[in-house]
Design a protein that fits this description.
By secondary structure, the protein is an alpha/beta fold. It contains nine helices and eight strands. The structure holds adenosine monophosphate.
């Protein structure tokens, strides 16, 4: 199964991608996590991406398409993958088509903007492995410590309120048009993100025909 998760920043794509990945045994491919890792390690790619990421803008299509192409060519992606945060522009979707990648479903997680803004303030991510948490909806067992790897969980710089507004406007302008793009192919399905992670997961699994 090759899946795309669509949805505004903070809608819960990463959390649901982790759940689908664990259930189906296919990797979650998050361009945001890959870029954050590159920034953390100070690589050439990271240096190019850093300013755009911190201001809430998108990293250039050229850079992101390059890293995505390399990632899906890795052996663990041979039986399917979940794209989380890619494509984010029509140009990226066209590039994916041009690579000959067959997409089975595009799952949109819809959450109204006012809920997104409230949620983002509680979001935390692991500095070590990139796993995502929320202080209220998906807390770690020990505060500030990642359940998966024991790393430190922190607030993302781009989850600051003013940057969140910028990211939502970038989403409306650049990414939301992808709904129309995938609607035409008949592959778009939408679920409304619920307050509880488990409730959204149930809807997501039902929509994808996965047994919970
Ligand atoms: P995310 O973790 O998916 O919210 O991504 C965090 C940031 O990384 C975004 O605000 C962008 O600056 C950058 N980014 C991640 N994925 C993409 C993409 N597909 N295209 C452009 N920029 C991206």
């Amino acid at each position: 199964m090759n899946l795309i998760l669509l949805g505004a920043p903070g809608a819960g794509k990463g959390t649901q991608a982790e759940a689908i990945s664990a259930k189906l045994g296919i990797p979650q491919i998050s361009t945001g996590n890959m870029l954050r890792e590159a920034v953390k390690n100070g690589t050439e790619l990271g240096l190019k991406a850093k300013a755009a990421m911190e201001s809430g803008a998108l990293v250039s299509d050229e850079i992101v398409i390059g890293i995505l192409k390399d990632r899906i060519a890795e052996p663990d992606a041979a039986n399917g993958f979940i794209l989380d945060g890619f494509p984010r522009t029509v140009a990226q979707a066209e590039a994916l088509d041009a690579m000959g990648v067959q997409i089975d479903k595009v799952l949109e997680i819809y959450v109204p903007n006012e809920r997104i803004i409230a949620r983002m303030s509680g979001r935390r991510v692991c500095e070590g492995c990139g796993a995502s948490y929320h202080v209220e909806y998906k807390p770690t067992a020990v505060e500030g410590v990642c359940d998966a790897c024991g790393g430190k969980t922190v607030q993302r710089k781009d989850d600051a309120p003013e940057t969140v507004l910028e990211r939502l406007s970038v989403y409306e302008e650049k990414t939301a048009p992808l709904k129309g793009y995938y609607e035409k192919t008949g592959k778009l399905v939408t679920v409304t993100g619920q307050e509880e992670v488990a409730d959204t997961r149930k809807l997501v699994f039902e929509t994808l025909g996965i047994e919970g």
